[in-house]
């Protein structure tokens, strides 16, 4: 094809080749294959990078299921790898390990006053921690769409928290610190300490957010399936990411019914036709994206071996059924020609 060079390659090679990348987010609707895809991307990155960390920010942790290995809040080496680590954190939990102890009452008051601030704080603490760890690349297996986008709003949430604290402080002057003293809260856990913490956190988050908005450092991989709702959600996600100025140029379409076996089932054939309709729309809408198609397997993709086997579809483009369609069309045309030829021969014989 003359214009084939203009079409982005249908693999995730671009991610593996972009050696400046530090943060890779993988997100999409529930159950479409985010954990499977982020696990495989982290495994592929581990081949070309000195060290890779995969983090699940989904409260329903499933990295442990994918790798069939138990993970915790501390990065743990994945079995069979020398440079791939995994950790599971829950941004919605007020993590004492992140240094929240002693601030409980004031902090929970604050948390109640500003929705999302506790989540923002623990996400911030986690990022602070991860930044000191010096991984070459960090892959995020995010929670379903809405949740992911909330993570990206955390700097704004923290800013709001800070403003609220400041206005409280100016309104009530020393009253607040008197109250905290009366209730036995030490100065180090008082309002100044909280404001200090919020400010410190804001700096970390702002710094990281700047990195998230830098396409050299960060990209977002959208995972979906070839169905109407998923197409719709992907478009919403892409638009939100654009709003947050976060780079995205990879879409992974999972659970594609491969048309390379002779399928007898009417149901499957109908599903394939439906999928093809949405696949076409994906390719039309996102012609500047790398679109990787993954087959629907008869079994789950769990365990390092299964993930490794499945990873070949991330680096070798799937032969589109379109090509097969073309072959079928040619065959149809050929058989039609043969029929015409036979008819012509009959006519000839008549003469
Ligand atoms: N192409 C596929 N063929 C067959 N099974 C698959 C495929 N992709 C993923 N799976 C399986 O489907 C299940 C869901 O996949 P996965 O956990 O990756 O989705 P998810 O988007 O992370 O889900 P959640 O939103 O619940 O976190 C898993 O059991 C996984 O092994
Ligand atoms: Mg998951």
UniProtKB/TrEMBL annotation:
The active site is at 58. Gene3D superfamilies: P-loop containing nucleotide triphosphate hydrolases. It is found in: Cytoplasm; Endoplasmic reticulum. The keyword Hydrolase applies. GO terms for biological process: tail-anchored membrane protein insertion into ER membrane. SUPFAM superfamilies: P-loop containing nucleoside triphosphate hydrolases (SSF52540). Keywords: ATP-binding, Cytoplasm, Endoplasmic reticulum, Hydrolase, Nucleotide-binding, Transport. Homodimer. PANTHER family: ARSENICAL PUMP-DRIVING ATPASE ARSENITE-TRANSLOCATING ATPASE, ATPASE GET3. ATPase required for the post-translational delivery of tail-anchored (TA) proteins to the endoplasmic reticulum. Recognizes and selectively binds the transmembrane domain of TA proteins in the cytosol. This complex then targets to the endoplasmic reticulum by membrane-bound receptors, where the tail-anchored protein is released for insertion. This process is regulated by ATP binding and hydrolysis. ATP binding drives the homodimer towards the closed dimer state, facilitating recognition of newly synthesized TA membrane proteins. ATP hydrolysis is required for insertion. This is ATPase ASNA1.
């Amino acid at each position: 094809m003359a214009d084939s060079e203009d079409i982005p390659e249908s693999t995730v090679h671009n991610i593996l080749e972009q050696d400046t990348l530090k943060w890779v987010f993988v997100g999409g609707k529930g159950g479409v294959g985010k954990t499977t895809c982020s696990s495989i991307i982290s495994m592929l990155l581990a081949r070309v990078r000195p060290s890779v960390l995969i983090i699940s920010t989904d409260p329903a942790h499933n990295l442990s299921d994918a790798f069939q290995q138990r993970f915790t809040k501390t990065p743990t080496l994945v079995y069979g790898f020398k440079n791939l680590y995994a950790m599971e954190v829950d941004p919605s939990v007020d993590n004492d390990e992140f240094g929240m102890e002693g601030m409980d009452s004031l902090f929970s008051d604050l948390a109640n006053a500003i929705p999302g601030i506790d989540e923002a704080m623990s996400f911030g603490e986690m990022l602070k921690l991860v930044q000191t760890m010096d991984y070459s690349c960090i892959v995020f297996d995010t929670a379903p769409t809405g949740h992911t986008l909330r993570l990206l709003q955390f700097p704004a949430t923290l800013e709001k928290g800070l403003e609220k604290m400041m206005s409280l402080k100016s309104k009530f002057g020393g009253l607040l610190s008197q109250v905290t003293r009366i209730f036995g809260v030490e100065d180090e856990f008082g309002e100044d300490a909280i404001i200090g913490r919020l400010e410190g956190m804001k700096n970390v988050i702002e710094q990281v957010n700047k990195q998230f908005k830098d396409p050299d450092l960060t990209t977002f991989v959208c995972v979906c399936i070839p169905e109407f709702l998923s197409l719709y959600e992907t478009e919403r996600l892409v638009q939100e990411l654009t709003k947050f100025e976060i780079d995205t140029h990879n879409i992974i379409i999972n659970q594609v019914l491969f048309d390379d076996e002779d399928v007898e089932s009417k149901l499957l054939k109908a599903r394939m036709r439906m999928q093809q309709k949405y696949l076409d729309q994906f390719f039309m809408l996102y012609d500047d994206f790398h679109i990787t198609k993954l087959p629907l397997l008869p079994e789950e993709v769990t365990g390092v071996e299964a993930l490794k086997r499945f990873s070949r579809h991330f680096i070798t483009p799937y032969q589109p059924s379109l090509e097969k369609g073309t072959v079928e069309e040619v065959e149809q045309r050929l058989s039609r020609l043969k029929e015409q030829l036979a008819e012509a021969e009959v006519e000839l014989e008549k003469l």
